[in-house]
Design goal:
Length: 479
């Protein structure tokens, strides 16, 4: 009876929409409110904020099958200054984590949008190393070592002084600035990319234990490290720009390859303000890497935007998110929030090439196509430029919805509110519906295959954290 009612409701929605799907449409919006996560942490951070503060969920977003998603905060709340905090860019010992969120889509035939969305936080997983990490010890600041550490659990934190000897790829550094997240094909692990290294780590999805580190190319490394981002930038002539590391992460539909997206060009390629970003592919089984050039000036002449996310359409085509830093949270009005399609077929590996002019002939996105203008779509639904979030960063496909005989691929987008809900708004989610035509034609889109995760015996409480994984399907059909 419930399915029949849902079918009738959706049929009414489609009648309002019209049967043709000419372009991506906004299906639903929703927000995750509240001030505390489910980490169970107590106490306060260096800036006086709670250790279990909920926010910044939009740095990365990953589908985990069914109606389950993983939302990723970055290095924590560093927009709140505190005594002595300037030495570490006001970063704190906020423990790195990801959140499990259940997304409930409900048809609303009389609503402004086709569906209503209710996100529910069902779990928080803290990230740790089973071997010792190097934490900061900046004079005048409290210890950066988390009080919840044990003899075999060393938690990653966002504090910028958490590094030791060597370059920025040292995997013993405690500092982590997570920006991209994807779920493994077997559903048991998550892959996370960051900006401090950049690092790409594999974590046990249930426990949060780091189980593998991927060796990234040495040309991405910053040789000279500092707890001050500006000092780190001026102190290096090669490597990633501080706070502009591996911002985006995709996974191939078959789960065999990771695809990282650098937010800005490497210093040797022009640095922040340059135009030649890099895409780095990683074969998960072997660890083999390749690099490709991406020209971020091709959207608008002489304009460079943040490369915030990348998601797979199939094994060779990807959607990339370009944005400015304007909008809600910046005190300005949004200008550019766009998603483009690119193709890596036949692309030249530029691992051994440096310099913008040398990389330019090999740019993979000369023929890129616009898939979705997020700002324009939100404007069309009554969201003004001043209320479009400045930092739209999370991007993920989800479960298909088949309505009235037509398949719509759901594209989920969320924002990083920098833990400042009164300034940058709530943790918002926007769900768009895309047809095959929107993605390049019939059978062009291949959603990620994620195996069901059985509930471990003796751990019944994990059921809430793994909500929706009992019966995963690629599509949710409404007949």
């Amino acid at each position: 009876m419930q399915k029949k009612l849902l079918t009738l409701m959706i049929a009414a929605v489609i009648a309002q929409m019209g049967t043709a799907q000419a372009a991506p449409i906004l299906l639903a919006t929703g927000s995750l409110t509240g001030t505390s996560d489910l980490s169970g942490l107590t106490g306060t951070l260096e800036n006086g904020l709670s250790g279990n503060i909920l926010g910044g969920l939009g740095s990365g977003l990953a589908w985990a099958g069914g109606n389950t998603f993983l939302a990723l905060p970055d290095r924590g709340p560093n927009a709140t200054s505190y005594t002595g905090g300037t030495a570490v860019d006001n970063t704190t010992s906020y423990i790195s984590r990801f959140h499990t969120v259940s997304m409930s889509l409900t048809a609303t035939p009389t609503g402004t949008l086709p569906f209503s969305l209710t996100p529910t936080l069902t779990g928080t997983t803290l990230l740790y190393s089973p071997t010792a990490l190097t934490y900061g010890a900046t004079a005048g600041l409290p210890s950066a070592i988390p009080t919840v550490n044990t003899s075999n659990q060393f938690f990653f934190t966002g504090r910028s002084d958490g590094f030791g000897t060597g370059n920025s790829l040292n995997v013993s550094n405690a500092r982590l600035d997570p920006e991209g997240i994807r779920v493994s094909a077997d559903g048991l692990s998550v892959f996370i990319s960051d900006e401090y290294g950049p690092y790409v780590y594999q974590f046990n999805r249930i426990t949060g234990e780091r189980t593998r580190t991927f060796t990234l190319p040495s040309n991405l490394a910053a040789p000279n490290l500092s707890s001050s981002g500006n000092t780190e930038i001026t102190g290096n002539t090669t490597g990633r720009v501080a706070n502009k590391g591996m911002e985006g992460l995709a996974i191939s539909p078959d789960g065999t390859k990771l695809i990282g997206f650098m937010q800005s060009p490497l210093i040797q390629d022009g640095g922040d303000g340059g135009n030649m970003n890099r895409i780095v592919t990683i074969d998960i089984a072997s660890g083999e890497t390749h690099q490709y050039a991406y020209d971020n000036h091709l959207s608008d002449t002489n304009k460079n935007y943040n490369s915030s996310e990348i998601v797979a359409i199939n094994d060779h085509e990807f959607m990339v998110l370009e944005r400015d830093g304007k909008g809600l949270g910046d005190g300005s009005t949004a200008v550019v929030k766009r998603i483009y399609k690119i193709d890596l077929t036949g692309a030249t590996d530029v691992s051994s090439i440096s310099g913008a002019s040398n990389l330019q002939p090999y740019a993979v996105n000369i023929n890129k196509t616009l898939v979705l203008d997020i700002k324009a779509a939100l404007n069309a639904n009554g969201i003004t430029d001043a209320n479009v979030p400045a930092k739209i960063e999370g991007l993920s496909f989800g479960e298909d919805v088949i309505v009235n005989g037509q398949t719509l691929h759901t594209l989920w987008i969320n924002n990083d509110n920098d833990f400042l809900p009164t300034v940058a708004g709530t943790n918002n989610f926007y769900v768009f519906g895309l047809s095959d035509t929107d993605l390049g034609g019939s059978n062009n889109f291949v959603n990620q295959s994620i195996a069901p995760v059985p509930l471990p015996p003796g751990l019944p409480l994990l059921g809430s954290a793994l909500l929706g994984l009992g019966a995963l399907t690629r599509r949710r059909k409404v007949k």
